[in-house]
Amino acid sequence: MPDLIQVSKDKTFALTNRFFSYVFRVSPEGILEHLHYGGPLSDPLNVSVHHIRTQREVASTFQGGKFFSLSDTPQEFPSFGTSDYRFPALHGRNSDGNTVFSLHYKRHKISKTKKPLKDLPSTRGGNCETLVVTLEDPLHKLDVELHYTIYQDFGVLVRSAKFKNKSDTEIQLQHAFSTALDLPPAEYEILHFHGTWSREFNEERIEVPKGRFVVDSARGTSSAAHSPFVAIMQKGASEAVGRVYATTLVYSGNFSINVEKGEFEDVRILAGINPFNFHWRLKPGKKFCTPEALHVFTEDGLRGMSHIWHDFIREKISPPQFKYKPRPTYLNTWEAAYFDVNEDKVLALADKAKHVGVDMLVLDDGWFEGRKDDTSSLGDWVADKERFPNGIPWLASKVKAKGLKFGIWFEPEMVNPRSMLFEKHPDWILHVPGRKPSLGRNQLTLDLSREEVTDYIFEKVDAILSCGDIDYVKWDMNRNMTEVGSAGLARNRQREVSHRYMIGLYRLLKKLTAKYPDVLFENCASGGNRFDLGMLSFMPQTWTSDMCDPVGRLDIVNGASYLFPLDVTAAYVGPSPNHQNGRVSSIQTRFMAGVFCAARGMSLNEQDLADNHEELKELMAFAKRTAPDMVGGRFDRLIKSDNEVCWQYTTRDQKTVYVAYFHILAAPNLPFRRARLVGLDGGAEYVLQEDKAKYQGDSLMNNGLPLPYVTTGHVKENVRYMAKGDFSSYLFEFTKK
Ligand code: GLA
After folding, report:
1. What is the CA(526)–ligand 1 centre distance, in A?
2. Domains along the chain?
3. Fewer beta carbons under 10 A from the terminal one: N or C of the chain?
4. Active site includes 300?
């Protein structure tokens, strides 16, 4: 393996692989000065030769220097108070009571590996190199280690920071960002995702404004309100072309991604723990590690960016034992019965599930003592004596005896005021003294910053999983945090609680998933309220949204796909009229909206199952047959407008190519449309399975695939038609010869 990291004598550092070069140097003043992030350079160390440093009359000069202002200098880890007025990566209080830190190069180290972070999830190493540059504030004896990992085969740069207090007095950290990236002036746009329950992953694309644009969360979860993701793009970048710099975090709590366009039009990106409401007391001799931030650079537009994310998440984030494992098809009880579940009903649904050809029965909410609605019993995790008299292990073994897998729902981080747990341990919740805790879905959040609480949760979940018949766990989390305080921490550490909660959650998940490596964990937070790379490090799939109406779901899947490979997503056929928005749609389109998600299933009651038996059977047979295809392949967004969506999915072995086309509202006399496919073998022949018609790869890419026509008019012979009416969909399946 060639060296991925080079260092010159005068301390210019260059990280280069076939995707990008990232270059910075130690300036004559000892500051880490950023030089280049972009396409790969053949002689990256040479960048500093042509580097221009500007000094303007209007800018303050750095600590007595004549021609050097930090306001006008791209940096690797800026602080505040010594001539840079932009938002800093480090900000806090030193032992003198002021907030001025100044970080200077101390030493560096390169290794051919990557170490995991101690308390937080982190990307896996392998074919990579890591550069650690230690900076120090000699006055206040604060060391800051900047960690950079570059991989041979991925276009992702991993960064994090570690703070070490080497003084004999306390240092207080307020901004402890994971990364800072200063991009040169240019016309940029921002792409980010926002939403709420059942409307996750809406795209917004705006020009980078002057001033500061922030996506963040103060809710205790990464949240669907603003996903922890920002792409800065060259103005006008498209799916196919354009420079893109994208950033996300391996973190599931309060985050912040800042984009600041300064007075000289340079653009600073900061990503990490949200500094709002965060305050960490770093005692002498102690360390503080930030979550990892990931950067992607590409010139190949948004599709190019997504390919890099997808490959990387699959290989380096998501649990490896599920990487290419086909996911079982399933029937989930939630929209089939809600809380009205009991042994007989579950067994009857299991029979129906078997009959329709699914692999797994999932018992969702409602199975534990007293849980007849959402007002009680979270926290207790004992099967309801009346409705499940024989207990969960018995039920699981019965379901398995029918030849199905068995899965179960938990919401372990929560407690209802009406529960045995709350009666016994009222102080185990996040709360602040003297204030009535606010409820969310009638429940309170357990204080996972306390080890006795995570131990209790482990015991409860373990008690069920240890029966050995549980194949799948849906791990839910249904409220945002309020009154965030802990009875387990001193008064002056209360602003550490949110982050300590995450450390506790990760500790718990690590222990559970290590004990049950073969249990398929699905991450859920009212759908996608905590869909991030932190949770994905432990759980190979996520319930992206409670929105199962296909029109609503299309936007959500499309939005999520910018960052996530659909391998890590689940989708099901829900009832019609849809329970969230009342829309009536066909079973076919309901299935199709999630056709490329790895985990596919249904949540339908006995009547729906009976009424649609044949169609469901066919769809589940298709889902089962294609389950191995839906892991490890390449997903491409081809068309996306308010009325049309077209996606391509190419399997990992590139032998099968699927194209899904959706038309939302029908209208007469529409244009005939084509989709130009991407990434095919131009010289190869692709056979369309439905009629064995042969297409040349280059023709599908350059001339395009004629899409089915939407009309209420009469049918002509050589034209392919969509089903009549609104919300129609069509799936092509090509086999490469
Ligand atoms: C959340 C989930 C749903 C379901 C319910 C159960 O809303 O997103 O899928 O599990 O909780 O209460």
Report:
1. 6
2. 5-317 (2.70.98.60), 335-630 (3.20.20.70), 636-736 (2.60.40.1180)
3. N
4. no
